[in-house]
Design a protein that fits this description.
Elements (H helix, E strand, L loop, with lengths): L3 E7 L5 E7 L4 E6 L5 E5 L2 E5 L3 H7 L3 E5 L2 E4 L5 E2 L4 E3 L10 E3 L2 H26 L5
Antiparallel strand pairs: 1-2, 1-5, 3-4, 4-5, 6-7, 8-9, 9-10
């Protein structure tokens, strides 16, 4: 693929799923719908561009909207800081990447978030151990 792009495919059942198309080899033409979203037309159907955070959260496993301005890949979160920040490092520093978490989300899903963090840390540790022959 020269120019792969993740898009949303609407199935005949009305459900939608994440798909990948190649802009060079698959797309016949592109248009905008009434809302301004790009629609890619191929020989195999129409695909729409990912337009907002809801599209990501609804179509990609483990992506959760933690506040009104971000969607976080929960499989990468390693910790939560005191100031409602999700960190992606085992030992965060001032330079570490983080995503903000709304108080309401943290309050409602605190146990689930902490379970995911524990799982991610265990994955991180097992990936760092030498493999047995």
């Amino acid at each position: 693929m020269k120019s792969p792009m993740s898009v949303i495919q609407t199935l005949p059942t009305g459900e939608s799923r994440l798909a990948v198309i190649d802009l060079h080899s698959d797309v016949l033409y592109t248009e905008k719908d009434k809302s301004g979203r790009l629609i890619f037309h191929t020989l195999h159907g129409e695909y729409r561009a990912i337009a907002d955070l809801d599209d990501l959260e609804n179509h990609i496993e483990d992506f959760w909207q933690l506040d009104g301005s971000n969607v976080v890949n929960m499989s990468k979160v390693k910790g939560v800081g005191r100031h409602l920040k999700a960190y992606f490092d085992d030992f965060p520093t001032e330079r570490s990447k983080f995503a903000s978490i709304s108080w309401m989300f943290m309050h409602l899903l605190q146990d689930i978030v902490h379970q995911r963090i524990h799982h991610n840390r265990c994955q991180s540790i097992s990936g760092a151990l030498p493999k047995k022959d």
